[in-house]
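Researcher: Quick test of sequence recovery. Tokens follow.
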């Protein structure tokens, strides 16, 4: 069984075809007699006004498209009225040929274009602003941290050293040392093996000054990147990093490295 809406649309389409046929018959009769002019004008203008006034979709249309939809809706009625007036005013062989051509064009145009249905499609309610926003893909924001941005552009790019990763929680310890957290871009995926040799070549930092290690208390989706010469530092320094970069991480061991800034 078809939905009720389908039956309604089918009925409207058939009524429209019948109305087009009746209009074409009236216009054809107007070529030979003036008796149909006044009834035809009344029917054309009356149905246009009633159709616009009692069409919920046209009346509820957005203000930007409502005038266009109403003009399209009324165009076959206005065209019919114009041809009827021309048939009443003009006479003669040439005039009748022109009028007959106009009747043919009106009938074909209304039959194939179906202006009434077109007008209702134009007047179709616009989607709500929230729906439009949901339909638009979220814009990927570039990382604000320069180091994270550099990582995304040079290391995590397709074909790079560590695609599918991102640099987060970059922390400068002092003028010579830094540490950062490498995270897998896809939740549930581990951070892939990252070649320290390639990273060293890319950054021009000696390999012995680059270290990528597991983070105590966290899974394989995170890794700690440290850059700089190993040197003594208090456990309080690394406790501060753990708390600021990864809240909830319990510090298990400490290491320090001298920083050479990424470039």
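Model:
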């Amino acid at each position: 069984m078809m939905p009720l809406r389908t039956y309604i649309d089918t009925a409207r389409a058939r009524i429209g075809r019948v109305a087009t046929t009746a209009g074409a018959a009236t216009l054809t009769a107007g070529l030979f007699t003036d008796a149909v002019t006044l009834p035809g004008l009344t029917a054309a203008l009356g149905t246009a006004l009633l159709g616009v006034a009692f069409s919920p979709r046209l009346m509820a249309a957005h203000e930007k498209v409502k005038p266009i939809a109403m003009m399209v809706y009324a165009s076959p009625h206005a065209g019919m009225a114009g041809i009827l007036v021309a048939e009443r005013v003009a006479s003669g062989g040439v005039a009748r040929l022109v009028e007959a051509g106009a009747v043919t064009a009106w009938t074909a145009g209304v039959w194939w274009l179906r202006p009434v249905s077109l007008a209702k499609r134009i007047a179709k309610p616009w989607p709500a602003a929230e729906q439009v926003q949901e339909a638009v893909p979220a814009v990927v924001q570039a990382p604000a941290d320069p180091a994270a941005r550099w990582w995304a552009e040079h290391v995590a790019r397709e074909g790079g050293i560590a695609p599918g990763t991102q640099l987060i929680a970059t922390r400068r310890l002092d003028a010579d040392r830094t540490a950062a957290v490498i995270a897998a871009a896809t939740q549930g995926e581990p951070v892939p093996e990252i070649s320290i040799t390639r990273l060293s070549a890319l950054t021009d930092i000696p390999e012995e000054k680059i270290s990528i290690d597991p983070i105590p208390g966290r899974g394989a989706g995170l890794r700690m990147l440290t850059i700089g010469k190993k040197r003594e530092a208090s456990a309080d320094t690394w406790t501060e990093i753990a708390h600021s970069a990864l809240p909830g991480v319990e510090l298990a061991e400490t290491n320090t490295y001298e920083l050479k800034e990424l470039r």
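The beta strands are 165-174, 177-184, 210-214, 222-227.
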